[in-house]
Amino acid sequence: AITAGGVAFLLIMTKQLVYEAMQSALKQALFVLGDRSVLRISGEDSLKFLQGLCTNDMKSITASTGIYTGFLNHQGRFITDAFISQDHSSSDSTPTYLLECDSQVLPSCRKLLQRYILRAKVQLDDSHPYEVKVFTGPLAESVSKLQFDQGTMFPDPRRPDFGLRFAHPRDAPVTLPSPAPQVVDSKLLSLHHVL
After folding, report:
1. pTM of the shown model
2. Where does the chain show beta strands of DSSP type E?
3. Over the stretch 61-89, which tens digit does the pLDDT of each residue have?
4. How far is CA 101 from CA 28, 72, 123, 131, in A?
5. 22, 132, 147, 174: most buried, per Cβ within 10 A?
6. CA 160 vs CA 10, 141, 154, 155, 189: distances in Å
7. CA angle, 193 as apex, 37 and 67 as ends, to 5°?
8. Residue 144 and residue 135: Cα distance in Å, rounded?
């Protein structure tokens, strides 16, 4: 018969083995996040507009950093978490940002933002599908040195070991470093965030 202590030991060992396997896979991996969508926000009032609606400081965004933030409704209830970063494909000096969030809540988030535009000089565009990827380990370092014309790339602001986030238009060609990175199930990345 297995005692309660024996069951606890087995659970701890199983968790440790899963964690070690996960860490091994994360050393150099590419995650394609198919459950994420991007909303492009542009216009001369976009910084001020977003600053008034998100829970983080928009002014801390630079060309190489993004923010992790939340959006609340008018009653203060949480709608979604999101990443916001600068869009490098903007050809003029108009501030342009990319808001990345869960695909299922993007319509709600867009509706919230649309409600508050009023007279602000802001445009929302989700007509061009983006692909969101996360690179981890040494792969993230080599990818961060690549030049790209469209999209955004920044380290995950939550923790350094969460990797490098990269969002680009699906129809834009992206050249990845050789050898080709191992594509890993995005559920493993979610598990890594929890553990």
Report:
1. 0.83
2. 30-32, 36-42, 67-72, 78-86, 96-102, 123-125, 130-135, 152-155, 164-169
3. 998 899 999 998 888 889 899 999 998 87
4. 24, 14, 18, 12
5. 132
6. 31, 12, 11, 7, 14
7. 55
8. 9
